[in-house]
Amino acid sequence: MIGVLNVNKPVGMTSHDVVARVRRLAGERRVGHAGTLDPGATGVLPLCLGPATRLAEYIGQTGKAYRAAVTFGIATDTLDAGGRETARVPVPGLGAEAVAAVLSRFRGEIEQVPPMVSALKVGGRRLYELARQGVEVARAPRRVTVYRLELVGYEPGEFPVAHLAVECSAGFYVRALAADIGAALGVPAHLSGLVRHRVGPFSLEEAVALEALEAGGVERYLLPPLRAVAHLPVVRLARDEVRAVRQGRPPRRPVAAEPPAWSGAGAREAARDRVALVDPDGQLVAVARRDGSGGALALEKVLP
């Protein structure tokens, strides 16, 4: 079995829980997700099956879109609703206008300090492992990009809630954004709800519930491997070139690439100099990188 599933992860399950469920349903050991979604969050979780697991990194490098709920006046040690409360200060005077006014600080290319509860490594240890031991270490800020950040709803009160539309690059932490917005306003804040609407070309509207996979079978909803790299320009190979590529020999002729099937936020940055090599039937054969100004191709990943 080979392909990609666009799963709508339910609240309360870890990304690994979803992977384990799909392994059982598909009878396929090789299943991997293309970017963790926290247990308290819902929405798009792309899964790669069989040899397509080698393509997961390309999905993970694409832009993402979320709807986030940020509660003001309450802070937690994990920056989200799953953590221990560390501050509670009613802020009934905080209005939507004040929140909207600070959002411009977080648009475009910014520096973001990753949260302690994350899978990043410092000194060979996962940050979340250190956090569980009560250890906090310095984290270097990272350059990330926010393509869109808009206030789309507001619930006033002692602990008001802002609803945000967020489009961001890979490596962005919405939990950290919530806390940083609170800091900019001078009040505690945490991420109280999160729905992932898009990962690269995979949208929530097309995502499949686990119940549907249980009822209809995995193969019914399996997408071709080419969807995993829909942000890459496409180079079409002749049949003899397909055989050569599968033997590790890239095309030596000048190649012209067709535009990518998906060109949304973050697509160009994720593509870099890569192209998708497809056979005459439009099936993905390999991912290659243009090597130097001459346009020669170097193979990165070849599918069976």
From TrEMBL:
Transmembrane regions: none
One term of GO molecular function: RNA binding
S-adenosyl-L-methionine found in the keyword field: no
Gene Ontology BP term (one): tRNA pseudouridine synthesis
Location of the tRNA pseudouridylate synthase B C-terminal domain: 175-215
SUPFAM superfamilies in alphabetical order: Pseudouridine synthase
Pfam families, sorted: TruB_C_2, TruB_N
Described function: Responsible for synthesis of pseudouridine from uracil-55 in the psi GC loop of transfer RNAs.
Family the entry assigns: Belongs to the pseudouridine synthase TruB family. Type 1 subfamily.
Protein name: tRNA pseudouridine synthase B
Organism: Caldinitratiruptor microaerophilus
Species lineage: Bacteria, Bacillati, Bacillota, Clostridia, Eubacteriales
